[in-house]
Specification:
Layout: E1 2-3, E2 8-13, E3 22-26, E4 31-32, H1 50-53, E5 56-58, E6 62-65, E7 76-82, E8 87-93, E9 117-122, E10 131-136, E11 142-147
Antiparallel strand pairs: 1-4, 2-3, 2-9, 3-6, 5-7, 7-8, 9-10, 10-11
Length: 171
């Protein structure tokens, strides 16, 4: 599944008391997520399924905020693959101070405010002006919205059927 530079945008937002950083990666021209030939991965917050092992690993992230294009202060890995019906994206967000991770929100589409979370915007029509927003925090609280040219924020009244899970680990 070839993806253009405009079609996938990943961002990790990890706020703490003194630190807010956003990391991004844009797919390079010709980027291809592998089609999995194994069973679909379990959506459980654990990346040990064969599908995840054969997925495309993306680790060339850079900051957007506070220092645009600077190297990230924490390591994050993104895995991408697909099958005939679904696109699968996994984030492994390392944290040198895991006890500082904020995850209080449990409800779907609730404002995540100061929670740590990951989000992705998909631009399937490659317009660079509209798309679909999907967000997940470590508790597995989901949020999704529709982005249009007329709005600067996702319309969270748009709902989609999708699966997501989060899991806390030692690192």
């Amino acid at each position: 599944m070839p993806l253009s530079r405009k079609s996938v945008f990943f961002c990790l937002i990890a706020p703490t008391v003194f630190w807010l950083a956003a990391f991004s990666v844009s797919a390079e021209p010709g980027f291809e997520a592998p089609r999995i030939s194994t069973e679909a991965p379990s959506i459980d917050g654990v990346l040990d399924d064969p599908a995840w092992q054969s997925s495309r690993l993306i680790s060339n992230l850079s900051q957007q905020y506070p220092n645009d294009t600077a190297p990230p202060s924490e390591k994050t890995e993104v895995r991408v693959c697909y099958d005939e019906r679904n696109l699968y994206v996994a984030f492994y967000c390392f944290d040198s101070e895991p006890e500082e991770i904020r995850a209080t929100i449990m409800q779907r589409d609730q404002s995540v405010g100061s929670n740590d979370f990951v989000w992705i915007i998909l631009d399937p029509f490659q317009t660079g002006r509209e798309g679909f927003y999907f967000r997940l925090n470590p508790n597995g609280a989901k949020g999704e919205g529709r982005l249009t040219e007329q709005s600067r924020r996702p319309n969270m009244n748009w709902d989609a059927l999708w699966e997501g899970a989060g899991k806390f680990t030692e690192d």
